[in-house]
Amino acid sequence: MNRSDSDEDSYNERTALVSSENPPLPFYRPDHDSTPSDYSPTRRTKVSHSVGAARGEQDGTGAVTDGETSQTPELEPDDEELTLKYGAKHVIMLFVPVTLCMVVVVTTIKSISFYTEKTDQQLIYTPFTENTTSVGRRLLNSVLNTIIMISVIVVMTIFLVLLYKYRCYKFIHGWLILSSLMLLFWFSFMYLREVFKTYNVAMDYPTVALLIWNFGAVGMISIHWKGPLPLQQAYLILVSALMALVFIKYLPEWSAWVILGAISIYDLVAVLCPKGPLRMLVETAQERNEPIFPALIYSSAMMWTVGMASPGEAQHSPHESDEEAEQSVRREEPESRQPMGVSEEEEDRGVKLGLGDFIFYSVLVGKAAATGGDWNTTLACFIAILIGLCLTLLLLAIFKKALPALPISITFGLIFYFSTDFLVQPFMDNLAAHQFYI
Amino acid sequence: MTAAVFFGCTFIAFGPAIALFLFTIAREPLRVIFLIAGAFFWLVSLLLSSLVWFISVQISNKDSAAQQKGLLIFGVVLSVLLQEVFRFAYYKLLKKANEGLLTLSQEETMPISIRQLAYVSGLGFGFMSGAFSVVNILADSVGPGTIGIHGDSQHYFLSSAFMTMAIILLHMFWGVVFFDACEKQRWWALAAVILSHLLVSCLTFQNPEYVTSLVPTYVVLFLMGIWAFYTAGGSLRNLKLCLTCKDKDFLLANHRQR
């Protein structure tokens, strides 16, 4: 492992954290005089890489961390061009899983009625009911629910940062593993049960136990330990989809929309404000020269969590700790790439997106699909979210520092949801009734 | 029966477009991104035209059916014009982006040519337009029901599917011709594209007499297709070489970036 170079290089700046990442290869191109400039973006991006990862800690919203732009020392003649090509390729590498997650959620919502049935049961984090008759009261209740939810998230995040600061690693690991156990076993069992109910499949308990045991055990192993990358990615997508479905079921209507808005504002504030718990987490990790916990980040590249009992994706729906778990998951795992050989460095750099981003994108699209049964709204939200993600990645490539992945996408998604639902839908319905085409 | 109708209409409406996407666009990330951005621009144009239509409906007399129909026709015309405006806006944006990409990159050539962008953006517009027109109809075709039970046309689903296919392909051809017209400053070509779009939309006012709306639409489709083919650099010679697989340069699979 040729890490010594990067160690020396990186201590100069506050990049102690990133020293454990794969060092940038000396970019030797005698005919190309832009070599020096390649280094600084590399370093800056690596800083942002870890900051972004740490930021991912903060809330369920993902930090979009772009490992690629830091990996400019490739053997291509035009690195800017390559950066852009990498940029485009990595945008697609994120589009595909986000699309898959949304497709799973929308398919489930449209076919299994369990997740759209109105229930009086609510999460303890949204105690105010929305069953009131007056609009004002309902609005007030949803705002109160949102305030409670967001404060729970903030408190849990601060708690996590404190735990990390006082080195209670075992506690964090245990918490995350417990959460992921619950998600992989209990919630997937619930999902399977509803699928069987919907399609009226007769099933016996021993078979179900076997299925769920296999599913859950392989999931735990592939997410927390080693496993083929596609399998890990598939499990992360499924887990995010399950989480999103639970949110869609248990969050009351208006509260869900207000929460989506509030959490994207919170994400923006948490990433860009210097005093956020996330920043503290990153700085603590940098001081200690440790990687932040690897875990609930979706990585599009090879990532081996070797020797790192990565905290699992703690997601349980009733607990906001998911968010934290996810956030902790967001963290970058630079060390995990150590065992890679030089030839595999290009493969290492994938773009990373936190699972909370997946979840909230899917919640938005799922709610669009659930309310109304109109496919135009769902499509519009889907395109809006993808474009928001694309813009976020573009900004990431331009500014080369960690950015919140939620605000732009959720803003576009919300705008398009409400405008399509109220404006476009009547127009298109009328056109379809007369069979006019525009 | 309903599943057959659903699948049949879906493949009629989206078959060619999905084939085009899979074979020419899916492998290139940059093209996929520009396709989705094109879809987004179409969506924004629809949003604006719906807003105007909605406001006009709110201030109008809701009981008069004739007035409502008139407003709908106005909405259609406005929507067509706005779509073309947004196509132009997308063209401008792409030109700027391409210049940006060019200055950033070390190469002298752009990673994606304006012709490819024209094709991809046209297809993006087409996808979104087709999807918005037909997805709800397809979703309804699965469920239990009988078409035309109140005396409407029996061929509603089928004609919608064929119309959608025509619209998607037309958007693609319009995109190619439009961008080329903007590049070469041929404003008459631009006007022709806008007029043909208006023509196709106005032909649909005659639905459910499908013969008078679908057949001319397909004629326009065919003509626009030939025009777009020649605009994109095709010729009879190219076509022959391509079909007999004689010239590798012209096979899309070996298409080099210009």
From TrEMBL, chain B:
Pfam families, sorted: Aph-1
GO BP annotations listed: Notch signaling pathway; protein processing
Single GO cellular component term: gamma-secretase complex
Membrane-crossing segments per the record: 6-25, 32-59, 71-90, 117-139, 159-180, 187-206, 212-230
InterPro entries, sorted: Aph-1 (IPR009294)
Compartmental location: Membrane
Location (main, coarse): membrane
Keywords: Membrane, Notch signaling pathway, Transmembrane, Transmembrane helix
Protein topology in the membrane: Multi-pass membrane protein
Domain of life: Eukaryota
Record-linked PANTHER family: GAMMA-SECRETASE SUBUNIT APH-1 (PTHR12889)
Quaternary structure and interacting proteins, as annotated: Component of the gamma-secretase complex.
Record function comment: Potential subunit of the gamma-secretase complex, an endoprotease complex that catalyzes the intramembrane cleavage of integral proteins such as Notch receptors.
Entry's family note: Belongs to the APH-1 family.
Protein name: Gamma-secretase subunit APH-1
Organism for this UniProt entry: Cynoglossus semilaevis (Tongue sole)
Lineage of producing organism: Eukaryota, Metazoa, Chordata, Craniata, Vertebrata
